[in-house]
Queue: 4 jobs
Job 1
Amino acid sequence: MRVRAQEHQHKTDSTNNIVLYFKIDGAILDSTYMGNNESLKKLDELIKNELIIPNLDSITIVASSSPDGKEAYNLELSRKRAESVKAYITGKYPEIKKELVYARYTGENWVDFKRMIETDKNIPHRERLINIINSDRENGAKEWLIKTLANGESWRYIRKNFLPQLRTGAVCVIYYKREPVKEEKKEEPKKEEKIIPPQKSEPETPVIPLIISKPLFAMKTNLLYDVLSAVNLEIEIPIGKQWSVAAEGIFPWWKASRADWTMQLLSGHASVKYWLGDRDAKEVLTGWNIGLYGGVGKYDLQLFDKDGEQGDFFDAGLQAAYAHKIGKHFHMEYSLGVGYLQRDTKEYDKVNDTMYGDIKVFRFPWKVERKQWFGPTFAKVSLVWLLNKKTVKKEGGVK
């Protein structure tokens, strides 16, 4: 809801933007819903200004609804929302005469709907959506085309990111009486004066802040490693629409002396990925990608046997992966790496109950053996948690 205050002692207008939201199919003003509590506090501070009531000319409320559903139903819904805001103002502020408060309604808010699509470059099939909205079709036909475009991919994005913001309540325009400008008196012949009542400007169309979720980074864990109790964490950062970079750490450090079991591994990997396909039609970090990877590490492995191995390794190669959504903030990714693996290893035997305790004795001859491998070097089934940053975008820039 926009509140526009025109101070009576100034020639220019001062403007306050207050947005009120309604629940789906709701016409009851809920102060606890979304940011309504803070918005109503701002409205209260504005109306309780000592200059408001004595200089109040009128209040016009204009309500709207999201372009989702039958047009006639949405028109009636916006009427109820306008009346709800009017009832709130006249009920809470009895000092305001009811005949000074007007309720208007516009039905579906296609103006801001179009603006949101034009502003958000991440929405799938943006150009096709704009062409549909700009066409001369009826609103019902436009809505059907939008919902069925690309098997509903664009509509799912709209329903998640746009519709909650389009379910706003009203634009509340508060008009104030202007103080007459004092002029010097001049002696002139008296003439009949025509009294022309001041004209009121029409209330402006609602300008709703566009809240865009921009991905900051994704956190991943390879479930295959987790099953083996190999603790791991990967961070991936998207760069533009087509690229991303990632860094991974694997750091299990487990040891059970009497059970002849050791799994100690410290490794770090980095990768750069190129995401395939039409990125305007896909959400970030979903679909197919290919890339390069490389990493180093050290390890000590002894798996329920007297024999064990310690060493360092290096690997690098090509990788391919596919990722898809499983929830609002979660993805699954399946990846395979193929390349070169080099290990510098030393084998040992576990000897228990010596005068020094349980010890590991390297085998003779005591030398480091280099082992090389070309082929698959890793496989991942990763759970991905995407962290987003919400950005409020208004006319004039991002704030």
Job 2
Amino acid sequence: MITGNREDFSYADALRKARGSISLKELEINKTKVRKAANGSLLIEVMGAGGAEKASKLKDKLIEVLKDEARVTRPVTKGEVRLIGLHDATSTEEIIKAVSGYGNCLIEDIKLGPIHPMRNGLFTVWVQCPLGAAVRIANYGKIGVGWTQVRVDLLNNRPVQCFRCWRFGHLKHSCPSKEDFGGSCFRCGDEGHIARNCGAPPACKICKSDGRAYNHRLGSNLCPAVNISTRIKPILNSTNAPGPSKESAVENKHED
């Protein structure tokens, strides 16, 4: 994804410059698709097998060519799973290695939340990874992490959310609100810290603003501010469920 650093940035000129400087043949890229992203940026999708690795190489080349003119990222369609039953000796490196291996995805595309204790003495962790990888490992039911087998739960798909006003159904680029909660904690709504470091009771800033009960986290199952109707379901009959043929999507958002 190419995002201009200036208001007068020309995406057409940037694409012409990239096409004149980068050989897709040398990168073994046979097919691409160029389109506008929801935030106005230019999205170049690398199609076919090995798309993730090839897109990563193309990103590096685009950074060399465009330099300070634009920000170049390799967004990936994300899915989320929860691993349940980890031992306290399990390291984050072991978890990432297992997810990468079972999910057949790049380590750089995996994000972990904090490892939380459960009542039975074992531990659980939230994992974000490419959607195809999330479905793939969920279809196993259980995967090996270190010396133990852990359960994999595929989580609900998150709705589109603006990270300026925190409301759902649109992105920051097209936000009509004057409110900007970008510096607030996603858990309690106060400023000065992030949700990962928050020990305060949950308080939904949107429900509080709208006059509803707000003793819950924004976007949770208790939150009426969003109606989560789309759910991702694993294909239970196949442990080799294919992921998307293209490797593209959105940037990381909140630090949970």
Job 3
Amino acid sequence: MFLFPVLSEATVTTRKNWDVATLNTAAKVEYLTDNEKAVVLEINKLRSDPVAYAVEYLEPMLKMYKGKMLYMPGNVPIITREGIVALKDAIKELKSSKPAAPLFPDHRLTHSARDHQKDQSKSGKTGHKGSDGSSIDKRIERYGDWNKKISENIFYGDPDARSVVLHLVIDDGVPSRGHRKNFLDPDLRLVGVACGSHKVYSHVCVMNFAAGFLK
């Protein structure tokens, strides 16, 4: 699934009672950058308490829309596809969603995500198909036999971890809301994250998810 590129940054402060010690599953993982670790933490915050995430981070954005334009403080205005409709849809779904277990980093998923990130950093392309024609399943299968379910989210634009998650959760212009569903899917337990530069959109962040591996 693909999110049409946006450039913005979320500036809302973190509430005091997020259980960061439990949710920061990537804290001691050496193969992830600090920004990639922050993405894992932000996804886990969303999964652990979707209602709180909606209240703290999404609802303040309701005042930032004017028609199809999104005006986030300190950032260039963004032309959205759906306007406030997508945001309201995200808030509604999060408020009716149950908590899911935190995701844990996996080196195999990180390798597959890194392959695609490096490919797109070099080519400037977007989407889920690699320059070699590879799909997500083929890229993951280079490193292991995945079990039951896999998925992929890709974000182009602002490297800020919260911005990455916020915009994929809102999923503006994506009728299936597939990125949001991937984040909230309780069947997914493992994650790999790879973020880097992009020729066209400045930054790309690839997230690969899996329910598990056969061995």
Job 4
Amino acid sequence: MRAVVVRSLGGPGKIEVIETPTPVPDPHEVLVRVVAAPLHPADFQSTSGMYVQFGAAAEADQYGVGIDVAGIVEAVGADVSTVAVGQPVIGLQERLDQRTACQAEYVVLEEWAVAPAPKDVPWSEAAGLPLNGVTAWQALDALAVPPTGWVLITGAAGAVGRLAVQLATLRGRRVLAQARESDENALRELGAVEFVSREESLGPAVRALVPGGVDGVLDAATMGVAAMDAVAHGGSYVSLLNSAPQQRRGITSINWAYRTDRAQLGLVSALSASGALSVAVAETIPLDDARSAHERNAAGGARRGLLVLTP
């Protein structure tokens, strides 16, 4: 099979697409034929060596690239009982030291790391649900904002932020979204009650709309102290990139990293199938063009939606 790997850490320029044997599932694993696999900012951290540097992955001579996937079950291990061959699934990879991963023609995942794919949802959109959906779900849980409370979501037009806006709204929280001015209408359509532009000074802009400050902030844009300054005394702050400021004014400050949760995978899939949750995809790209796709992804810019690889 073909697989996206790095054999020399140093960023997206080190990415290769290689031929390698198709993996064989262990007793508790499933083999998934990949239909779509999205790119994430975390891929840059992986290919640049940050995970090795911080001890999240062991040193090795090859690392697979890719965290989540949508595809079809090709084979199951001897002890698998809840997943069937031929079943469309979405899945999430938690280990960061595999020789091949989700950006490949095939990937092996633990049985507990897959859930049914959303019916009648394009593969590319379904593939964008696992990492971003579970991260948004768990981050909102960690915030513990009370019903009808205010949630500030920075970077609200990004992959995690966009899903967080929708999930927080579905939970009955009032969302104040922060993003580029050009994103305002789209975010209001997704449920945001109020909006501030990233060009504004965040704390004063938020307090002009919500006197006293919001109950919690999901800081997907990694704004740190500026985002915490928008939180009311005794509120909560969650960062997704180990950048949470020290606690102040009684605010609970949390660095959050996702954990694979099959039940939550199933819930975000069901919400997507019902039309209550949507993923923005900018472009699908052939697997063989993975290096250039990752270079574009690392460069960032004003692109709206995920880049998704298709074998």
